[in-house]
Design goal:
Blueprint: E1 5-6, E2 51-52, H1 57-85, H2 94-99, H3 105-123, E3 128-130, E4 141-143, H4 146-163, H5 167-173, H6 175-199, H7 213-219, E5 226-227, E6 230-231, H8 232-260, H9 264-282, H10 284-287, H11 291-294, H12 300-314, H13 316-323, H14 330-359, E7 366-367, E8 370-371, E9 374-380, E10 386-392, H15 403-416, H16 428-452, H17 454-462, H18 489-500
Helix pairs in contact: 1-6, 1-7, 1-12, 3-6, 4-8, 5-8, 6-12, 8-9, 8-12, 8-13, 9-14, 9-15, 14-15, 15-16, 16-17
């Protein structure tokens, strides 16, 4: 996705030299600013720029016409392929993978029963929590019974396992068919959501530009759609996707024990993931303030991802260990367990600090034994009204901006480590999550930079690291050396604006274009 700047005049806009400490999608120097930014389609009015330059034709073609169909085909087919990789088939063909694509009676029964169970718990009277307000003023309500749903689901599965002792083994044996069924259900749901967005949108005031059909199918049209009174993203992301993760890894563990007997490594693999998923349901209300909910629209990317990709890839280390028993020793497994529990605890603590800060009146709470520090950031909503948000500068959030991602990666590595010595397959989830969280980091920072302007720039000076290792840290060298480190093209342009407008004639929070610049003058 791209951000392109163009000035009022036909002359190209030049900026002072802002060099970065590593190659990245951000590179600004004395050239025409024509830089595609990795994450969001942003319309930024900054400095004296008053028009958005159209991206090159090839970029639009790739983004809107090539990427969506390629991703739709590759990921949808990859699920069926991976389902067979984890089995014991010695000869794997695409014909074999396609033979399970429509499921069977067992898979349809399991998916249907599980989906009805999830919908039922979203209809059970319970407390309501509201997510952050959208730009069009809507605060989506969510059912606050995640912990009860989690334990009730586990008790229900264990009860069914006791009644039907072969249940876990059958789930493992029919995993290709289960994923085939989920594929059909998820693709159908995405098509219905697309039609709903066209003809019966939940919020007609939620305007979005018209895009090619497959692109809209991939990204989705609506931010918070509801069907039969149920929030679609809470259903797909939390109640089906995350709970399926828990049920499947438990089934795989029991199937492995039945085949090979007890293994400390597989137990550690199960326990670490179970603690992580249980933590998610304990923290479910905090999840409603994350990018998945407040930014991603309900389409293939998020709904299919949670309904199919999560049960397939997120459980893959456990799935693979059923047919390929681990060779890790008991002592090593215990060390892995300690590492995993520590990183999960730290991941929870990072998220808890943000949630506690948000709930505290006026942000008045103590973190690490000191009153929480924060930046009061102003921004304008879609109606032009000035709003405020608090950017936390204390606790883990004062040390690095995405430390929760670092700990989540380490936790995922821990529960993949029981597959050490079995090749790359048990580590597939860790590899994918690394790419996902790097991408999400950039998406989050571009969103914040656009929303908060110079307040975000100040926050990045106060908290210069993206994670504890300083990865992706980008340096700044230019006339305004006191600005320190900046982290995106948006921030580079903010620096440029202050360099060019030292008298303060531009209101920083507005990101609007005042006077026509003298583009011929070298800075």
């Amino acid at each position: 996705m791209g951000l392109f700047m163009h000035c009022l005049d036909a002359e190209p806009l030049t900026l002072p030299t802002y060099s970065f400490s590593q190659p990245s999608f951000l590179r600004v120097d004395r050239r025409v600013v024509n830089v595609p930014v990795h994450c969001l389609e942003l319309e930024l009015f900054c400095c004296r720029c008053t028009k958005i330059m159209k991206p090159p034709e090839w970029y639009d073609v790739v983004r809107y016409h090539i990427v969506p169909p390629v991703f739709l085909v590759v990921f949808t087919v990859a699920v069926q392929y991976l389902a067979h990789v984890g089995q014991e088939e010695t000869t794997l063909t695409w014909r074999l993978a396609a033979s399970t694509a429509l499921g069977n009676s067992f898979s349809w029964g399991c998916v249907g029963l599980f989906s009805l169970w999830a919908v039922f718990w979203l209809q059970v009277p319970s407390g309501l929590v509201h997510g952050p307000s959208t730009l069009f003023g809507y605060r989506p309500p969510y059912q606050d019974n995640g912990v009860l749903y989690y334990w009730a689901s586990l008790v229900g599965f264990v009860t069914m396992q006791a009644i039907y002792p072969d249940l876990s083994s059958d789930i493992f044996s029919n995993m290709p068919e289960l994923l085939g069924t989920l594929n059909v259900v998820a693709l159908t749901l995405c098509a219905l959501l697309l039609l709903k967005g066209y003809f019966r949108p939940q919020h007609p005031e939620d305007k979005h530009p018209s895009r090619p059909l497959l692109y809209e199918f991939y990204t989705g049209l609506e931010l918070h759609p509801r069907i039969l009174g149920v929030d679609v993203k809470q259903l797909t992301n939390c109640r089906i996707g995350m709970m399926a993760w828990q049920v499947l890894i438990l089934a795989f563990y029991l199937a492995g024990v039945k085949r090979h007997g007890f293994s400390a490594a597989t137990l550690v693999n199960l326990l670490l993931q179970s603690v992580f998923v249980a933590k998610f349901f304990w923290w479910e209300t905090g999840y409603f303030s994350t990018l998945d909910i407040i930014l991603d629209r309900a389409g293939y990317y998020i709904c299919w991802g949670c309904l199919v990709w999560v049960p397939c890839l997120y459980t893959f280390s456990s799935y693979y260990l059923v047919a390929h028993p681990p060779i890790v020793s008991t002592t090593t497994a215990l060390l892995i367990a300690l590492l995993g529990l520590l990183t999960i605890l730290l991941n929870y603590r990072v998220d808890y600090e943000k949630q506690m800060f948000r709930r505290a009146p006026g942000g008045k709470c103590d973190l690490w034994g000191k009153p929480a520090r924060f930046i009061m950031a102003q921004y304008k909503d879609s109606s032009g009204n000035v709003q405020t948000s608090k950017l936390l500068l204390s606790g883990f959030w004062g040390y690095a901006r995405h430390l929760n991602y670092t700990f989540e990666l380490l936790a995922s590595l821990a529960w993949c480590l029981p597959g050490l010595g079995l090749g790359v397959w048990p580590f597939l989830y860790f590899i994918f999550l690394t790419c996902l969280l790097v991408h999400r980091t950039f998406r989050d920072e571009e969103k914040c930079a656009l929303k908060y302007g110079h307040h975000w720039e100040r926050y990045c000076r106060e908290v210069p690291l993206r994670n504890e290792y300083g990865a992706f840290q980008i340096g700044y060298r230019g006339d305004a050396a006191t600005f320190g480190k900046i982290l995106s093209l948006t921030q580079a342009l903010e620096v440029y604006r202050e360099d060019r407008n030292k008298n303060g004639t531009v209101e920083d929070t507005q990101l609007q274009a005042p006077l026509k610049p003298n583009l011929n003058k070298a800075e």
